[in-house]
Amino acid sequence: MGLWYDSFNNKKKMKVDFAKGDGLIPVVIQDNQTLEVLMLGYMNEEAWTKTQQEGRVTFYSRSKNRLWTKGEESGNFLEVVSSHIDCDQDTLLIKVKPAGPTCHTGARSCFKTEYNHNFLLQLERIVQQRYDMPTEESYVNKLRQRGLNKIAQKVGEEAVETVIAALAETEHDFINESSDLFFHLLVLLREKGLDLQTIAKNLESRHQ
Fold first, then answer.
1. pTM for this structure?
2. For position 3, what pLDDT does the model report?
3. 45 and 58 in contact (C-beta within 8 Å)?
4. Which residues of 106-133 are buried (b: 16+ CB within 10 A; e: fewer)?
5. Residue 169: which residues within 8 A CB-CB, separation 6 or more?
6. Which residues, other chains included, contact 125 with Cβ-Cβ below 8 Å and sequence gap of 6+?
7. Of 103, 126, 83, nearest to 40 (Cα)?
8. 13, 12, 15: which is closest to 2 by C-alpha?
9. What is the C-alpha to C-alpha distance for residues 181 and 157, in angstroms, rounded to an integer?
10. d(CA 130, CA 145)
């Protein structure tokens, strides 16, 4: 029979059916910010309970026949942000904040996919890290020290250069100027305490 547990992101309880897989369910791990799929593991009831209690992903290792907390040796823990059950209630999607590379090979992901297609989201994380741990040589830190007005002014300058490149320069120039514009806009969003998710939700609401 299915068992009821509180999910991380919902007040309502969700049903997880461990019976279908002889006590094990597959769990997809996804980076909460970049949305990249990081790995697939399995949980039994005990692993799922431990994951909820500690806020770190714990699997059931089929090869070792025991609970296994990801990062227990490497320190690259998977901090839980939210959990989601599928329509058949026998597969979990857990969105995480990874403390380091997820794969034991040192790669970001256990799947050998092309470089992160969501690098714009990864770049947002990098900007956040520059704010959290500023260094003297960091360009983001230099922008931050100049203050909100200067950052906003820089976005305006990059926007003008992007328009000029679109109308009168090469495609390569336009791509470069668009990249500069987006980067500085990310810094401005961070300076204002906002993020890309806020913008995406606003755009989604307009679409509806």
1. 0.66
2. 43
3. no
4. eebbbeeeeebeeeebbbbeebeebeee
5. 177
6. 33, 34
7. 103
8. 15
9. 8
10. 12
In this structure, what DSSP letter does residue 10 have? -
For residue 107, the SS3 value is coil
Cα–Cα nearest to 186, from 123, 143, 135, 131: 123
Residue type, 180: D
Question: Quick one: 101 exposed, middle or buried, by C-beta within 10 A (0-12, 13-18, 19+)?
Answer: middle
Q: How far apart are the first and last CA of the chain?
A: 39
Collapsing DSSP to helix, strand or coil, 99 comes out as coil
- d(C-alpha 115, C-alpha 53), whole Å: 33
DSSP state of 9: S
Encode pLDDT of 30-81 as tens digits: 999 888 899 999 999 999 999 999 999 999 999 999 999 999 999 999 999 9
- Residue 127: band (very low, low, confident or very high) from pLDDT cuts 50, 70, 90: very high
